[in-house]
Amino acid sequence: MTLHGYWRSGTSYRTRIALNLKGLDYGQVTHDLRKGDQKDPAYTALQPQGLVPALEVREGFVLPQSVAILEWLEETYPDPALLPKDVDERALVRAMCAVIGSDVHPLNNLRVVKRLKSMGHGQEAIDDWARHWIAEGFGALNRMIGDHGLTYAFGTTPTLVDCYLVPQVYSAERFGADLSAYDKLMKAYTAAIRHPAVAAAHPDRQPDAD
Ligand SMILES: N[C@@H](CCC(=O)N[C@@H](CS)C(=O)NCC(=O)O)C(=O)O
């Protein structure tokens, strides 16, 4: 399998974490977001939105959208499980993922930030915008992790929540967010980044990192 991504992209990072937790072998092809390589026609032929990541499973089968990739990985390689067995718990894990995947990350994405810039907003206003949505999401997620987390964000083993959480904390730190209020969330984050599979997914450890 080949992961089309970029070292600093949060959604590529979340996909690497899932692939690593599943113990899967994969190659990586980088698309430099700073240069706009994600809009190259050769890539948009694979991922029509021109966004990373995309998982090229085999010739003729390329999966876009990290949520679909993670769900596909879970269904195709169920062991180790990143979703609990209990149906109620599975839904809760997905809800916690969506706090980040639907309600935080999309608002801080590169193309959103670029659009804000082109509308005349300065860097400080843009960072403030990002921190606002991070605070909203992390406030709620901190409570959810308080209710459901044990060693990790949900229970005692890594789940999809950790795949979403770790890159979002990395991004929040880059936006200069104050994370001191999110005690449960940061405890789960600290446990997750110590896991070797998660640590190996860190942006700085990728071949395209500079
Ligand atoms: N919902 C998509 C979002 C993908 C996405 O926004 N990727 C970002 C990097 S984290 C990207 O490619 N940005 C390039 C751009 O905005 O032009 C997913 O989860 O895969």
UniProtKB/TrEMBL annotation:
It comes from the Bacteria. The keyword Protein biosynthesis does not apply. SUPFAM superfamilies: GST C-terminal domain-like (SSF47616), Thioredoxin-like (SSF52833). One of its GO terms (biological process) is L-phenylalanine catabolic process. This is Maleylacetoacetate isomerase. Its EC number is 5.2.1.2. Signal peptide: none annotated. Residues 1-81 form the GST N-terminal domain. PANTHER family: MALEYLACETOACETATE ISOMERASE. GO terms for cellular component: cytoplasm. Belongs to the GST superfamily. Zeta family. GO terms for molecular function: glutathione transferase activity; maleylacetoacetate isomerase activity. The keyword rRNA-binding does not apply. Keywords: Isomerase. NCBIfam families: maiA (TIGR01262). PROSITE patterns: GST_CTER, GST_NTER. InterPro entries: Glutathione-S-Trfase_C-like (IPR010987), Glutathione-S-Trfase_C_sf (IPR036282), Glutathione_S-Trfase (IPR040079), Glutathione_S-Trfase_N (IPR004045), GST_Zeta (IPR005955), GST_Zeta_C (IPR034330), GST_Zeta_N (IPR034333), Thioredoxin-like_sf (IPR036249). Residues 86-210 form the GST C-terminal domain. Pfam families: GST_N_2 (PF13409).
